Predict the structure.
Amino acid sequence: MALNLNPNFSEVGKRYFNAYSPGDDFYEMLINAHRDLSDEQSELLNARLILLLANHIGDIGTLREALNVAREGV
Amino acid sequence: MLTTYIYPKFEYRTPPEIASGKTLKVPVVVVGAGPVGLGAALDLEQQGVPVLLLDEDDTVSIGSRGVCYAKRALEILDRYGVGDAVCSKGVSWNVGRTFFREQEVYNFNLVPEPDHHRPGMVNLQQYYLEEYLAARAASRPNIDLRWRNKIVSVAQTGKTVTLKVETEDGFYSVETDWLIAADGARSPIRRMLGLDIEGKIFMDRFLIADVVMKADFPAERWFWFDPPFHPGQSVLLHKQADSVFRIDFQLGWDADPEEAKKPENVLPRIKAMLGAFDGAVDKPAREFELEWVSVYTFQCRRMGSFNHGRVLFVGDAAHQVSPFGARGANSGLQDADNLGWKLKLVLDGKAPEKLLDSYSEERIFAADENLVNSTRSTDFITPKSKASRTFRNAVLGLAKDHAFGRALVNSGRLSVPAFLTTSSLNTPDCAGDTFAGRMVPGAPMDDAPIIENCDAGWLLNKVGKEFVLLCFVDDPKSLDPAVLAVSSAPSARDTAPGSAGGITFADIPLRTVVVSRKPGTVGGGIPTLEDPRGIAAQRYDAKPGTVYLLRPDQHVAARWRSLDAAKVKAAVARATCNA
Ligand SMILES: Cc1cc2nc3c(=O)[nH]c(=O)nc-3n(C[C@H](O)[C@H](O)[C@H](O)COP(=O)(O)OP(=O)(O)OC[C@H]3O[C@@H](n4cnc5c(N)ncnc54)[C@H](O)[C@@H]3O)c2cc1C
């Protein structure tokens, strides 16, 4: 499975009238998840989140590609 | 102070009530002649309601405020008679560039979707908008517009609102059935009635500067995150009319507004920015003249309810959002648009006062959507924590190469009207009727090109103000005779009483408009719009026989695959709280 680099957010049962809405929904959730955490706690949350999502994706090839893209810009 | 604009000074006239000592009695008073109050007065005037419009000042909005007026607001302004003036003076832009530090991350070209009358937005200084609206209002005999008339007290007893008005010649009293409070963010009326508005102040300050460019400059929107000439903050550049460019510098909460405003602090900032604009910081400075500087903070908040007895709040008095996404005046004009027809029906005794609860319900739904969107933009532009900043910068970095990153960059989302999908005025689709597309009950109507009597025009200019039954046919000759029968055009009502199962719409005006793929007319005085390329039919997912019930404010109230007069009647009743 190739890494999808196009906009890909949506929620089942939800109807969107603007293309930006699902991505903005996610981004808000993400930032809210960090609310009131110390920097150290935020780092831990991010690490846990990456592990959860990686396991969910499962496909090592896709994960390798994502790791490469992520690392390129650092 | 401005070199490109002279503020009009509107004439004050001594109100006749000062000499007579009489209390003025009117059905509706609008307080505040900002864009929203002027809009509300023009809306009611078009509905045939006489309006007393009072403002404590005698000119338009001073300095640099609203800039962007979006498509829906322009369509409403068309109905108020100033759409052409705003669009021809305003600046259209399509290209937006986003920078992160010294690099352009990406650019976009908002080529307007074809086959709409109005573009996604135009840029225009707020004072022009107000000047056009004020001139229009002054020309309407049904609007009694009084400048330098200040409301100093307000009281509500039973069905009457009593106002005390102060002028330089003394005081007078006004009694009115309905008061529309369009008196701005600090709303003295809200305060005098002891009403709350809840929300939060954003802990940030912005410096706005209007500069006149001496040389040609592209009509583009430029947004910088963390630029070298203003590290750690954001900067926005926009073109307005008369070659006046508006620049917004984020300052942070700790900045001293008085210091920041001083020319010796503002000018170097602008010079550095223009250097970056030209791609070389060392180039000789571009010539520009500073027109206006101010510092602002903003709040995101709204009232719990927009109607309180006989007082109705509109615009900034009812809700305030951050300027990112330009939702203030845009949404305020939609308040006016939503309120006018409802108040008219209530005043005429054709709908219960409860209909005005739906004004509050629907516009709170819209205000909450605006608050969510502008808060999200604000949080992206001015991250509040280290984690939030890291994510923001990561998005900007990814945006350079990846489409999904670009979709997440949020430097302000264009103001769009709310789809009032949860409104109690909507009639849901019938079980058997399926529709594709976005014209669901509650949707603000999409425009489409049409031809009427050989003249090319626009669908949105042919509907609105009253309820409209929009009937789609392939050929005018094949029109369902039932359509003629439900039309409340006087001729149709007189000649065919009760022929469609005894239904009449004598109480609530309902106009019929036919959209036909083929040319021709249906007769009976019913306007027939030709849809030669089928764009209207496509946007409304219409088949021959499909019928839409449209509200006076151009939202969809109901739709069916075939006409059933009883269902139409029930839907009109529901949309007016007469069910
Ligand atoms: C920096 C900035 C940028 C913005 N950009 C945009 C944008 O791009 N697009 C957009 O749509 N909006 C924008 N806005 C918001 C827009 O300016 C406001 O939403 C808009 O002016 C609200 O209109 P209003 O008629 O509700 O209130 P106002 O314009 O505040 O008008 C209120 C009127 O009430 C009168 N009044 C007050 N008290 C009394 C009294 N006691 N008696 C009589 N009269 C009284 C005042 O004189 C005034 O004329 C921006 C605002 C700011 C500050």
